[in-house]
Amino acid sequence: MDESRPPQNLVVVGVQWGDEGKGKVVDALAERFDIVARYQGGANAGHTVVVDGRKFVLQLIPTGILRPDKTAVLGNGVVIDPVALLEELDAVEKAGVPVGDRLLISDRAHLILPYHRSHEAAAEQARGVDKLGTTAKGIGPSYEDKAGRRGLRTCDLLRADEFRRKCCEALAEKNRLASALFDGPLVDSGEMVERYLETATRIVPHLADVSAYLNTQMDRGKRVLFEGAQGTLLDLDHGTYPFVTSSSAAAGGACTGTGVGPTRIGGVVGVSKAYATRVGSGPFPTEASGPESEKLRERGGEYGAVTGRPRRCGWFDVPAARYSARLNHLSALVITKLDILDHLAEIPVGVEYEFAGRRFSDFPSEIAVLECARARYQALPGWQESTFGLRDYSQLPKEARDYLRFLSDQVGVKIAMVSTGPERDQTIWFDESVVRGQ
Ligand code: IMP
Known about the structure:
14 helices, 32% helix, Adenylosuccinate Synthetase, subunit A, domain 2, binds inosinic acid, Adenylosuccinate Synthetase, Chain A, domain 1, three-stranded antiparallel β-sheet, ten-stranded mixed β-sheet, alpha/beta
């Protein structure tokens, strides 16, 4: 083990509702790690990384794959559509990134099959105006089957006969449900089973006991970066339920989602935009309206990386960020997209909520309260000059430094890094100790 490089493993987690720019942050941090592991979610994520002017959007494969000396791992907590995964793998290789044996897939990860997507589409349609606004990737129904103990896992691809049997059984049940509940289209078992079995020849060589692999590598002094997808406010247990995703997006998910014990993880880095966005339905207390929101969307390119949907835009929400900081016990914050605020003379920051004549700053469990709560703002002076691409703290305008200090003080977590553009090096380091492992 190299003693000059303490083996601290880190989780990178979204502080808000996803789309915080975790892809760029994981890519920037990955240089100092050996392995990058995804622990939850599936191809609902869209991690955008720009390397030397080339844009990559990774949905399922961990961002670490873009660095040739890193191993990328998909943990047991991830849900995988094997057909979509192979398409993504082909796209990555076609873009000149050799994958080879650098991708390991947990043999315990659950599968997403076509009936999960059709079930989701029918269920969303049945909800009408109350729809959740999901990414339509079959994520929720796959996790439902996992919790219902009727899911298929990647290890089921090892034995064709067993896979056929389990798949046909599951499909018969899904088709009965689809016709009884939703009057939805039926999925043809024969065609589907053979199509998915064909993926086995390429998926199986990547399968591994990921918990055994990660723990052995850690014993050897290798460092692991756990790449969270979505964000804490979309976490199944702690987010704005039911407007959440179906996995454990908060840092705790890194343990259950990879088979690594909590005492092996040394820190948690929370990534937040300098403002806020949300895609899909659900409460958003600091949502801006009209031209303010449109300007943020236009300047920030705020359109979903997976679905292309316009993101709802608004202001930094201190009570929500403080809630995330507590849930994840954040060691440090990374603030992204600071430059998107360059045009503003004043920047509103939501510092507390008001509902039914009461002011409060804790994050409510009840959706009805969150939906009706009005954010109360403190306006901070803007800087009205370009911070795009800055790489040095001393180059930041005073107002920008004050803005960042305000966020850090309010949330109660130090800032480790600020991102000023999509490229790897458009980054200002405030404090590297958290990633140095000290
Ligand atoms: P699902 O994860 O597709 O089930 O969608 C549930 C909710 O999470 C919806 O509001 C989605 O828009 C949102 N969501 C899922 N993945 C992401 C993401 O990577 N970024 C932002 N929102 C997401």
